[in-house]
Structure formats: C-alpha cells, structure tokens
Amino acid sequence: MGGKPTGRFTNAKTPSDLIVNELGIKEVMSAYLDPYLRVEDLKTGVSFASGGCGFDPQTSSIAELYKLGARKIGVFGVPPIGSLPAQRTLAGGFSRGCVVEYNQAAQLANTKLSAAIASLSKNLLQSVLVLIDIYNPLLDLIVNPQKHGFEVVDKGCCGSGMIETVILCNKYSGTCEDNTKYLFWDSYHPTEKGYRILVDQILQKYVNILTT
Asked: Which Gene Ontology MF annotations are present (predicted)?
C-alpha cells in the first residue's frame, strides 16, 4: 500500500481490509509482521494470517484470541480449491476443468472445521464462533461469471494466469489489460473486484451475528 512493504502478498485490498473498512473500523488491516505496525494498531485489529496456514494453528489462535478478550470470532472456511486456476492446471487434465476430488476434500475439511468450532464453543463460554462459508460464494462466481460481471475465471490476470502466484507475479511476469474482467489476480487469489463481491455477500449474511 502506498509503495511501502506491508508484510503481505498483495498491494491490493484483501477481505480483512474490506471488512474492517465497511464496518468503519479502519481503512486497512495491518499485518502482524508489518514493519510499520504501531502499538495503537493492535487496538483495532491486525491480521495473523500466513501463507499455507493449517487447521491446528487456527484452532489454537481462536483460543488465544478468546484469552485476549475476543468473544465474537469469525473463521473463514476452505474455498473450492479444485476450481482455482493453479489446481486446474496441475490436476484438471487437458481441458483444465475443476478437480472434483479436491473440491470434495475442501467440503470435508469445512465439515470437520464446523464440528471443531462447535466443540470449541462449548469450552469457550460466552463466545460466538461462526464458520464463514466462502466455498459456495466463490464457486458461484466461478460457475456463473457473467452474472457477476466477469469474463475470465479459469486463469489469473498475472503472467500466463495458469500457475503463477505470490513471488512469481512480479514486474517481469506482466499482467492482463483489464483486471476487472478477471475473477483471479494470480492462479490462487481473487482480484480486488472478486474480493469485494465476496465480502459484500459475507457481510450480508454474517455481520448481524458478529456485531449485535
């Protein structure tokens, strides 16, 4: 943001940024490892997310947040990973179709995560833990792109769009002419337009649960 390193993979706004912005908390959610992080930023939230974050660390993080005073916590589920551009390239065959087995695995993970959250809720009295579904909203964008104003959903805007992600998207890889036509920025992460649509749906469904 603003030409300064943020400790994040992107220079655009992520879902956490968009959510806190819509709720009027702050403009951008700072990363915990942001070198420009100030003590006062901790009062309104920082992102502890990390690339490839697993299930167990997330569970322990919820308990830690509860110890710090958080009582209403939203936990994002697993997206339809088999429909992400990179996985379509790696395992989707010649046609680069969605990988059914991977999507089934994501659904299974979400089922187990839901059960874990329900169990954790019993131990964390006074807590409101909510599993935020991103599997179905993102899959809807992929299956019905024109309904949401997208033209390309099977590859990203960066480079070839087939496999590039994170550091492989750089000043040498090139980008598409109009990223608003693309659901994905790289082969894994949506564009800011895609994120905005997802966040709008999330807020409509969950904001009352987590703010009242």
From this structure: hydrolase activity, acting on ester bonds
User: In this structure, are residues 85 and 187 in contact, taking their beta carbons and an 8 Å threshold?
Assistant: yes
- The number of domains in the chain is 1
Q: Does residue 23 form part of some domain? A: no
CA distance 31 to 194: 21
Strand-pair partners of 175:
158
Token representation of residue 78: 């697993």
Classify burial at 21, counting beta carbons within 10 Å of its beta carbon; exposed 0-12, middle 13-18, buried 19 or more: middle
First to last CA, the chain: 32
Dihedral over alpha carbons 167, 173, 176, 177 (to 10 degrees)? 120
pLDDT in tens, 126-157: 999 999 999 999 999 999 999 999 999 999 99
DSSP code of residue 92: S
CATH of the domain at 97: 3.40.50.1110
